[in-house]
Amino acid sequence: MHNHLDAKAVVRALSPDEPVICNRPHAAERAARFFVEKFPGKAMYAVKANPSPDLLRILWGAGVTHYDVASITEVRMVREILPEAVLCFMHPVKTKSAVAEAYRLHGVRTFSLDTHEELQKVVEATTGEDGHAAQDLNLLVRLRVSSEHSELSLAAKFGIDLADAAPLLRAVRQHCDALGICFHVGSQAMTPFAYVQALERVRAAIVEAAVTVDIIDVGGGFPSSYPGMEPPPLEDYFALIHRHFEALPISYSAELWAEPGRALCAEYSSIIVKVEKRRGDELYINDGAYGALFDAAHIDWRFPVRALEEDLSRPPAEFAFYGPTCDDADYMKGPFMLPADIQAGDYIEIGMLGAYGAAMKTRFNGFGGAEAVIVTDEPMASLYTGERVDPRSSDNVVSLR
Ligand SMILES: Cc1ncc(COP(=O)(O)O)c(C=O)c1O
What we know:
Layout: E1 3-4, H1 7-14, E2 20-23, H2 25-38, E3 42-43, E4 45-46, H3 53-61, E5 66-69, H4 72-81, E6 86-89, H5 96-106, E7 110-113, H6 116-126, E8 138-142, E9 150-152, H7 162-173, E10 178-182, E11 187-189, H8 193-209, E12 215-217, H9 234-246, E13 255-258, H10 262-265, E14 269-279, E15 282-285, H11 294-298, E16 305-307, E17 316-322, E18 331-339, E19 347-350, E20 371-375, H12 393-400
Parallel strand pairs: 1-20, 2-20, 3-13, 4-5, 5-6, 6-7, 7-8, 8-10, 10-12, 12-13, 15-17
Antiparallel strand pairs: 2-14, 9-11, 14-15, 14-19, 16-19, 17-18
Helix pairs in contact: 2-3, 4-5, 5-6, 7-8, 8-9
């Protein structure tokens, strides 16, 4: 991968007709060190956010030793790239063969589940040929919690309701070495109180089940910074989570875990796109809904943008984007603020695409190719540069939502 100073230097050097992914290893490394040093427990990387082997090596180098994997393909891939990593299979619905392969071939000991059927599956898949049940399982019950404070809900699909959790927790306790409770507050949680609320539900589940719990896993959801979605400092999240974890009725030696995806890699990548056509306030660009801009198209996520031409002089105006494929759905309404005189042939950098962006590219319609380069400038926004935003912002966010 070639090194460049920034996206402008890439355009000068390559005049690319295809999109170019700009990776910032220093930004991913900084985010990882921040979590490793400041999160008051074990932070494991949620591989789904961006499974790039280069990124995995950067995170490992920065001290991230645990990885949340959600499919057997992710298990195999991470095991090959990072042979010593601790892998935790945190998808609550797995095939029996995936559990068996993960346990027997790849050393996975941690699994999440949210039903009695899944417990049965995990127990059967890990029982030895001699009929002896595994004695070394860490089993985490996924509790359904609210996503009301998050930009992307994860409340519907997985998680057992609090009202049904006690019998499952008691059943799981019989089959594991360590019993955990995990949850996901939804992605891009805009206030730390999302975790406080969820931990209160965890408390209720523990009290009701009257079991000893060894692991509390607060999942992902840690935010990054996007236009109109500037969260409070991550230290606020960590402090509140720590305080409320400490107050839970759990075993003395209980561990606190988290599964950040977005927060560890959003700053890692941006993408350079070329404007192929302009129609009023719509720009036809060469990446889109089936490429790195899935979230911009499907959930109207607003990513930061900047024009890469030196000679654009008009003040910013609002634009929408069309991607390169032939269907109307390849549309990103934005609005994206760019100089009003931007035109076909110009280049744009779209930032903060390291999480659920660059990793989502498909080859639909023959598009989706992209060269990757390394750039050394700062990402368009960062939660890790040490500049605290307004200290009252956490309270503001809570009261506004
Ligand atoms: C089980 C689990 N853990 C962690 C994550 C990562 O979430 P985020 O990127 O919001 O941190 C996800 C995302 O879908 C998930 O499903």
